[in-house]
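sry for the spam today, last one i promise. struct tokens for design, 170 residues
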């Protein structure tokens, strides 16, 4: 099992440079590249629907995930629940995800500028005008989309539900 997981990770988890090389090859092949980013700490139905919808918009789906260090800064102590290795592994197991990039900046703006995706997507809880990198993607001839949002599914809500259940059992 470990060898299968390692093979998945080796094929799909990309360094910044390898991600740039891959996007250049895909662009030469006239593939439409879709880019999204997030923590993806606890993969839930909202994430799956969102990622499937994102993948349906193009030929290649790149998912950038925040590093463990950045998630702790953004979400606080105790987060992430799953480290970047396991978050990458879960995303790599999805057939419709073509590449995962772990980034260690507060925002993915530099990565977006380097990769120049055709389509930048975020969940429906994001306003198009506030999506990081939207201006730059549009200036490069790309598009930005806010996708469907399934209410009731968020990592924070799941964690609160587990904590409440745990407290009720004490």
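last one done:
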């Amino acid at each position: 099992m470990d060898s299968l997981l390692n093979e998945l990770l080796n094929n799909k988890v990309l360094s910044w440079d390898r991600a740039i090389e891959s996007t250049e090859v895909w662009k030469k092949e006239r593939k439409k590249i879709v880019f999204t980013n997030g923590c993806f700490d606890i993969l839930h139905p909202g994430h799956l629907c969102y990622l499937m919808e994102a993948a349906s918009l193009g030929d290649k789906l790149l998912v950038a995930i925040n590093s463990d260090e950045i998630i702790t800064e953004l979400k606080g102590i105790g987060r992430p629940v799953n480290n970047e290795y396991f978050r990458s592994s879960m995303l790599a197991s999805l057939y419709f995800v073509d590449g995962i990039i772990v980034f260690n900046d507060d925002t993915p703006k530099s990565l977006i500028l380097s990769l120049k995706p055709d389509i930048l997507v975020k969940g429906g809880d994001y306003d198009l005008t506030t999506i990081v990198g939207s201006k730059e993607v549009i200036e490069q001839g790309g598009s930005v989309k806010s996708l469907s949002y399934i209410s009731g599914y968020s990592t924070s809500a799941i964690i609160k539900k587990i904590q409440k259940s745990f407290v009720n059992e004490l």
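The chain has a mean pLDDT of 88. ok im logging off now
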